[in-house]
Amino acid sequence: MNRLLLGAAAAALLHITPTVVLMKREDAVAKLLPGADQFVSRELHLSSADSKRIHDAVGWEPPDGVVTFYLGKKQDQVTGVLVFMRVDCQHGPIELAIGYDPHDTVRAVEVTKATVEMKPWIVEALRAGLTNEYRGLAVAEPPSGAEKVKPHVGSMPGYMAELIDKGVMHANAAYRLFYH
Amino acid sequence: MLYDLRQSDVRVRWLVTLLLATLGTSYLFGAWMVGLYAGYSPRKVAETYGPAGEMPMTMQMPPETTLVTERPISMAEMGEEQHHVDLDLLVQDTHVHMPMYAVIAACLSVIVLGLSIPRWAGLSIIALLFAAPWLDFAGMWLTKLASPGFAIVALAGGWAMALGYVIVAAIATYQMWWRKT
Question: What confidence score (pLDDT) does residue B57 get?
């Protein structure tokens, strides 16, 4: 009986909480592709060789082998690129929007979705200035936002910052290897 | 019959009625959620659970060389999330939902044990209650790994779940509150 109760408690604890929107995708698009009045979706179905390339580079490959870049344009000139990236952990998924400027550097990063459980941890990491650390980051540079905010936040917000670093690293690798 | 719902204490019948009402409400919201995120046509389900992108009906294996497709989209489309369940999310969904489906099927089966129906009918309903979630998830996994054509299996599983619930709820409510002898 005790084992049964323990199992039920473990199952309840492991249950992933519902997803919450931290920033609407439309708002993220407006913020990360400012001034753009035309948008293009560029979808890449990666070959096995390209999946292996990105896996070798960052230890990750896109789910189902698909990477989508959203290009923002003004008067037919590309003004920026946006990637939505999901990072999974045992607490559920986090969705990031990573914007790039035409100089191949990170324009900004926004967290668009998380779970109810993770939201306060993410908000604490964001208040500590996590996303400021990504601005202007070259796509070949490893993101180090977590390292900067960890001394100022609790352990779970620090962990969330590490996950967000990881998502930015995956998006940067996809951009670096496949965008041009 | 292990026990008789018709003759059971009013507290048991009240419990079963509230359980059925609560499950029924959650099923209605479940149906709403399926409509929002996956849809009710085999094509919509295949797009949700099959390989990602615009070529779900044709591409199962990675292409020889990376394929690039470009299309203009509107701001509204960019904001709209095309809900797609990839392999990682399907693992997570299966982990989260299968135990809950098992508990629901078990609760409904316990109700079936108290119904005044032939043994074969009880066995069939219990089989249906447990087969439905298996069909649902088998459909999702087969759509993901084998062919988008298996989306029909996921749909059949969903409808079977609804059918199982309706059968149990209808017979139980009738026998508990109307046909007392």
Answer: 43
Counting one residue from A and one from B, how many pairs have CB atoms under 8 Å apart? 92
Cα dihedral A62→B89→A108→A40 (10° resolution) = 60
The region of weakest confidence among A150-154, B135-139, B144-148, B166-170 is B144-148
Q: How confident is the model at residue B55 (pLDDT cuts 50, 70, 90)?
A: very low
Residue B53 has pLDDT above 60, yes or no: no
Query: Which CATH number do you get for residue A117?
Result: 3.90.1010.10
Q: With beta carbons under 8 A apart, name residues in chain A contacting B92.
A: 16, 88, 92-93
Query: With contact defined as beta carbons under 8 Å apart, do B115 and B3 qualify?
Result: no
Flag if B89 and A93 touch (Cβ within 8 Å). yes
Q: Do the Cβ atoms of A83 and A171 come closer than 8 Å?
A: yes
Over residues A99-124, mean pLDDT: 94
Scan for tokens 């369940």, then name that residue. Answer: B85
